[in-house]
């Protein structure tokens, strides 16, 4: 039996600053540019959570979207929406909050919450033109 992917789209707004404490201010500025701005800046993140698996023959669902959306809201949006990722979250105290790392953190939060047979892929848009996928 073929697998099916179900995708839930969500949205959150967060502030961040990209900065490597091991580098000089000049090097941080040259690598991260505007995203190194010392007083932080915001992004409107679009999140796609893709769950892949065999449909349950009893429900016809890969996963109930009510369960999936509730999980994302409780575990991800409540944590990151309208927050400063560097200052307000434990995950990015030492990890640079790039789109790549945010996608990985979201994956690591959600994966243990899913049934074992289900695969998970995270797609995160930082802008309309820039997005990342994890894992790839
Ligand atoms: Ni930025």
Describe this entry's structure for a reader.
The protein starts with a strand and ends with a strand. The chain has a 5-stranded mixed beta sheet. It is α+β, with helices and mostly antiparallel strands and 136 residues long. The protein is elongated, with a radius of gyration of 17 Å. A hairpin with a 5-residue loop joins β4 and β5. The model has no long low-confidence stretch (mean pLDDT 97). It has a single domain, classed as 6-pyruvoyl tetrahydropterin synthase/QueD (Tetrahydropterin Synthase, Chain A). The protein has 4 helices and 5 strands; from the N terminus they run βαβαβααββ. The longest helix is centred in the middle third of the chain and has 16 residues.
Descriptive key words:
136 residues; Tetrahydropterin Synthase, Chain A; 29% strand; elongated; binds nickel (II) ion
Topology at a glance:
Layout: E1 4-16, H1 25-32, E2 41-53, H2 65-80, E3 83-84, H3 85-88, H4 99-110, E4 119-125, E5 131-134
Parallel strand pairs: 1-3
Antiparallel strand pairs: 1-2, 2-4, 4-5
Bound molecules: nickel (II) ion.
Residues 16, 35, 41, 43 line the site of nickel (II) ion (NI).
What is the total tally of β strands? 5
What's the tally of helices?
A: 4
- The secondary-structure class comes to alpha+beta
List the ligand species. nickel (II) ion
CATH level-3 fold name: Tetrahydropterin Synthase, Chain A
Q: Which CATH architecture would you pick?
A: 2-Layer Sandwich
Q: Identify the overall geometry.
A: elongated
Order of helices and strands: EHEHEHHEE
Write out the strand line-up for the largest beta sheet, numbering strands in chain order.
3-1-2-4-5
The CA-CA distance between the termini, in Å, is 23 Å
């Amino acid at each position: 039996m073929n697998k099916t992917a179900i995708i839930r789209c969500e949205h959150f707004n967060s502030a961040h600053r990209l900065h490597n404490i091991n580098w000089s201010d000049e090097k941080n500025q040259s690598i991260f540019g505007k995203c190194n701005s010392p007083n932080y800046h915001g992004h409107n993140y679009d999140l796609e959570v893709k769950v892949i698996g065999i449909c349950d023959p009893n429900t016809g669902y890969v996963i109930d979207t009510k369960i999936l959306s509730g999980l994302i809201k409780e575990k991800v949006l409540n944590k990151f929406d309208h927050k400063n990722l560097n200052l307000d979250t434990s995950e990015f105290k030492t990890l640079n909050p790039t789109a790549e790392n945010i996608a990985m953190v979201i994956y690591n939060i959600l994966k243990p919450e899913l049934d074992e047979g289900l695969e998970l892929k995270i797609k995160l848009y930082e802008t309309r033109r820039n997005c990342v996928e994890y894992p790839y």
